[in-house]
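User: I'm new to structure prediction. If I give you an amino acid sequence, what do you actually give back? Let's try with this one:
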Amino acid sequence: MGYALKHNFIPFDDYLAGERDVETRSEYLDGEIYAMAGASEAHNTIASDFCAQINIHLPDHCRVWQSDMKVIGQTRDHKPFAYYPDIMAACGDNTDDPYYRTNPILIVEILSPNTKRVDLKEKFDNYTQISSLLEYVVVSQDTPALRLFRRRTDWQAEFYYAEDTITLESVGLTVPITQIYRRVRREVGLETPFSSKTATE
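Assistant: Good question. You get back a string of structure tokens that encode the predicted 3D arrangement of the chain. For your 201 residues, that looks like this:
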């Protein structure tokens, strides 16, 4: 999703209170609020399918959300942040507030040209400060490619492509990369117009 600076220097508690009754969601970093733009059809389709696959592998005491549940935390400089991950999974009871989570085990962001810098730099830096987080996944929406960062490997990047299978240890899911892109095969180059025509003849 794209971002645009909406307000300057809003206290964090004011942001949390105001975010409950808004039509347009916003994210927060150190006093600044950023309005979130809409996402493409491919973005939403990838997120929906990936979220569904994660959901069926979760034990009953865990939950997964797509886009509408905030995660909050603090940066290395102890400045507050709040984001809406494209996918987030957490286990155990929510002891803080029903509108956000502080204890995710898995976060997934679907990468677009407008969010590449934020997802791979700012959000990476901030998400990895969350003590409960075990894995962070960045998924390309234009090509079948994923980057996986794990706490147990000190957040070193692992790269996965169309011919690979990925295992998310945090949620016990092993899935071929092509399965994540199964409904957007044409958009990400897994299926050419020629092969699509041939398949229907």
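You can read the tokens as a compact description of the fold. Here is one thing that stands out. The chain has one domain: 39-200.
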